[in-house]
Amino acid sequence: MGLLEGKRGVIMGIANERSIATGVARTLHREGAGLAFSFLPDSGERKRNESRVRQVTDDLHPLVVAPCDVARDGDVQAFFQQVHEIMGPIDFVVHSIAYAPTEDLKLPTYQASRQGFAQAMDISVYSLLSVAQAAAPYMTRGGALCAMTYFGGEKVMPGYNLMGVCKAALDTAVRYAAAELGVQKIRVNAISAGPVKTLAASAVGDFKKMLGLYQQTSPLRSNITAEDVGAATAFLVSDYGRMTTGEILHVDGGYHIMGVSQYEESSPD
């Protein structure tokens, strides 16, 4: 029997095969969860976004695959209403959504445009609160929200720039939402994942250097995979995580505990 047998939840943020959300979805499906997925509505007739999500999720036997633009409150409300009508009570939501305009992300943080800053904060941070607002009424037996964050919101990471500011705000949003939703037995946590090769990561400057730094510096001397994030997510949204809320769980091989790079290993005198 899987860890999530009998649970039903939503995963938001799959872009393609390599998305962190894809690894999470596969793990949660393997643990027995029934899943619903959102995709960014397509403009025009080609339906590329829907096609990408369906290609990734078809073998996971999704209960719902539906459009949702998290920048539109009406879309978010309609999506969760549709999910509830088909699935019944929602047990968990995985929020794996972040965005900043490329031109602003590549600039030093203090040079980001006002419009780019506002858009990045809206999609990367406010969308979690909007999702919580829409999902909470359907989490009638309690539940869990899990967001995806990064260490660049705690410490300065070269090249992460504007997104670091967004992740710092996201971390705080997680804590406040956890405090406010706890009375409804809804837990809110985030996973601070190490770097994973995804489409979104390609927009971050010096990403290859970041991978090398993590492999060299982290106590486990290894980079993580999307499936590693999936395993941690399974814990947080399962009954095993029933007393964990407001937590930023680092899945980074221990990188976040290090003050300096590892010393070269040598034999004692």
Question: How would you describe this structure to a colleague?
Answer:
It is a single chain. With 269 residues, the protein is α/β, with parallel strands linked by helices. The protein has one domain: Rossmann fold (3-Layer(aba) Sandwich), CATH 3.40.50.720. It contains 8 helices and 7 strands. The protein has helices at residues 20-30, 48-57, 73-87, 102-105, 114-135, 162-181, 207-217, 226-237, and strands at residues 8-12, 34-39, 64-67, 92-95, 143-149, 186-193, 248-251. It has a 7-stranded parallel beta sheet with strand order 3-2-1-4-5-6-7, sandwiched between helices. Helix 3 (73-87) runs parallel beside helix 5 (114-135) and helix 5 packs parallel to helix 6. The longest helix has 22 residues, at 114-135.
